[in-house]
Amino acid sequence: MYASAASDLQLPSVFDPALRYLLISFPLDKLWALSLFAATRWKQRVAAITQLEQIRVLLVQGTTDQFTKAESYRKWCEELDRSSNGVTVSTIEGADHFWSTPQQRDHLVAAVKRWLQ
């Protein structure tokens, strides 16, 4: 699992056709701090991944994320959708960055299960 935006991402030269990326509560508005001011580079890398046909990407975020505004996610997802082979976006109403309640976590798990099928 790739859990830190502070580490460098190395893409393999040959991709597994079943390779998938799951971005949960991607810290879009705080990426500048987590990536040592290299947020643009990280956003470009996510965009590059989404352009590869054999890669599937799921972006799951809540509407009350403490670190990224819902409007920021919406705009970014529109950008990714225009330039990609398809990103599945699942927005969970009322969910926060930490998926604090059992109901929020249930919605998260359900979104991932739907995407994997």
TrEMBL record:
<feature type="domain" description="Peptidase S9 prolyl oligopeptidase catalytic">
    <location>
        <begin position="53"/>
        <end position="117"/>
    </location>
</feature>
<dbReference type="InterPro" id="IPR029058">
    <property type="entry name" value="AB_hydrolase_fold"/>
</dbReference>
<dbReference type="Pfam" id="PF00326">
    <property type="entry name" value="Peptidase_S9"/>
</dbReference>
<dbReference type="GO" id="GO:0006508">
    <property type="term" value="P:proteolysis"/>
</dbReference>
<dbReference type="InterPro" id="IPR001375">
    <property type="entry name" value="Peptidase_S9_cat"/>
</dbReference>
<dbReference type="GO" id="GO:0008236">
    <property type="term" value="F:serine-type peptidase activity"/>
</dbReference>
<protein>
    <recommendedName>
        <fullName>Peptidase S9 prolyl oligopeptidase catalytic domain-containing protein</fullName>
    </recommendedName>
</protein>
